[in-house]
């Protein structure tokens, strides 16, 4: 189902074609997945069969798709080219690019699987990453996208509002996670993931859930997300405490984490690099003696993909631009003891970062 009017997708394709020309690329082949959904509104899935939007720098746009799926697809300005079992779909995709594809590099989209990539490379003189032309367009969100991501953020905030009531001594992480899944589905179309990491399990940033029983005073990392509307995602982490006495060092470290996250939100601005923003949070945590325990990047872009550009990571020279949407989520993880993370999705505006998540960030 398309979320936006046909002219929105026509404009997105036009901007990508303009970028192909600017990058001196002959065209691009985009497989089924978030990039295709961004450009056409279609989440068609043809499994192992090739579905590919073929964009020529000369302006032609053709969607090569199994005939079994072609009837349900209607994209303004895009010619539908159906293929049947026995046809050479990869040759049809190469042909759909036009003669220009023989005179310059063709970008291959990130959703294409290796079998499709290898076959297309046999047919095209030169290939490169489609991200050269797509990344900048894909990463800067328009007002319609920001509205959807904001609505998804509101929906996940509503789930976090219910979490404290689920964290009772004697319950297992698995029981809590199942309750959270039901809450996510009350405001989203699908559950993307649920992390409930209590006590020492919270020291694993990507712990999922387990049969561990919650105890009095346990810190609990709850990182949750779902998909919403046209496929836009929510993603928000809060750290909670089960009723009971807390580890004094945990409380002190949490104050450091709050300062680091707040400083990064306040520092974010168009024109700075993603690496410089990562350094803001990392410096505060390191100065407090926890630098070795902040073991992941500070954030990632979010939209039709759960993780996309820009990646807020040390050393990145990607320039942050107005309209980018990304997480700011520093964490501290002490092995075999506890972990903590605070994650908000922000949209970068001319005046700085605006939080889309409004769930309380203090310990609850």
TrEMBL record:
<dbReference type="InterPro" id="IPR029149">
    <property type="entry name" value="Creatin/AminoP/Spt16_N"/>
</dbReference>
<dbReference type="Pfam" id="PF01321">
    <property type="entry name" value="Creatinase_N"/>
</dbReference>
<feature type="domain" description="Creatinase N-terminal">
    <location>
        <begin position="12"/>
        <end position="129"/>
    </location>
</feature>
<dbReference type="GO" id="GO:0004177">
    <property type="term" value="F:aminopeptidase activity"/>
</dbReference>
<dbReference type="InterPro" id="IPR000587">
    <property type="entry name" value="Creatinase_N"/>
</dbReference>
<dbReference type="InterPro" id="IPR036005">
    <property type="entry name" value="Creatinase/aminopeptidase-like"/>
</dbReference>
<keyword id="KW-0378">Hydrolase</keyword>
<dbReference type="InterPro" id="IPR001131">
    <property type="entry name" value="Peptidase_M24B_aminopep-P_CS"/>
</dbReference>
<keyword id="KW-0479">Metal-binding</keyword>
<dbReference type="GO" id="GO:0046872">
    <property type="term" value="F:metal ion binding"/>
</dbReference>
<comment type="similarity">
    <text>Belongs to the peptidase M24B family.</text>
</comment>
<protein>
    <submittedName>
        <fullName>Xaa-Pro aminopeptidase</fullName>
    </submittedName>
</protein>
<keyword id="KW-0031">Aminopeptidase</keyword>
<feature type="domain" description="Peptidase M24">
    <location>
        <begin position="148"/>
        <end position="348"/>
    </location>
</feature>
<keyword id="KW-0645">Protease</keyword>
<dbReference type="Pfam" id="PF00557">
    <property type="entry name" value="Peptidase_M24"/>
</dbReference>
<dbReference type="InterPro" id="IPR050659">
    <property type="entry name" value="Peptidase_M24B"/>
</dbReference>
<dbReference type="InterPro" id="IPR000994">
    <property type="entry name" value="Pept_M24"/>
</dbReference>
């Amino acid at each position: 189902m398309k979320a936006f009017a046909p002219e929105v997708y026509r404009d997105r394709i036009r901007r990508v074609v303009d970028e192909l020309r600017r990058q001196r690329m002959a065209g691009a082949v985009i497989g089924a997945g978030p990039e295709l959904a961004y450009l056409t509104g279609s989440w068609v899935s043809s499994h192992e069969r090739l579905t590919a939007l073929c964009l020529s720098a000369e302006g032609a746009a053709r969607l090569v798709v199994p005939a079994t799926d072609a009837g349900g697809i209607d994209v303004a300005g895009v010619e539908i080219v159906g293929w049947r079992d026995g046809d050479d779909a990869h040759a049809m995709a190469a042909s759909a690019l036009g003669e220009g594809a023989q005179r310059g590099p063709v970008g291959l989209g990130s959703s294409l699987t290796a079998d499709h990539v290898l076959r297309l490379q046999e047919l095209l003189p030169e290939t490169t990453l489609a991200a050269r032309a797509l990344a900048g367009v894909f990463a800067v969100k328009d007002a319609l996208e920001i509205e959807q991501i904001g609505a998804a953020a509101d929906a996940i905030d509503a789930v976090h509002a219910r979490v404290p009531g689920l964290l009772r001594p004697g319950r297992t992480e698995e029981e809590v996670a199942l309750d959270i899944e039901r809450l996510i589905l009350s405001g989203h179309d699908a559950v993307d993931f649920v992390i409930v990491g209590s006590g020492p399990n919270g020291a694993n940033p990507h712990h999922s859930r387990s049969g561990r029983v919650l105890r009095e005073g346990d810190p609990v990392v709850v990182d949750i997300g779902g998909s919403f509307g046209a496929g836009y995602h929510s993603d928000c982490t809060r750290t909670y405490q089960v009723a009971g006495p807390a580890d004094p060092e945990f409380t002190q470290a949490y104050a450091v984490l709050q300062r680091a996250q707040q400083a990064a939100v306040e520092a974010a601005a168009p024109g700075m690099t993603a690496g410089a923003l990562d350094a803001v949070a990392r410096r505060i945590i390191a100065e407090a003696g926890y630098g070795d325990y902040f073991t992941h990047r500070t954030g990632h872009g979010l939209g039709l993909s759960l993780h996309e550009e820009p990646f807020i990571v040390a050393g990145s020279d990607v320039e942050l631009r107005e309209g980018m949407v990304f997480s700011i989520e520093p964490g501290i993880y002490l092995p075999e003891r506890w972990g903590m993370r605070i994650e908000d999705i922000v949209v970068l505006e001319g005046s700085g970062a605006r939080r889309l998540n409004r769930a309380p960030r203090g310990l609850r």
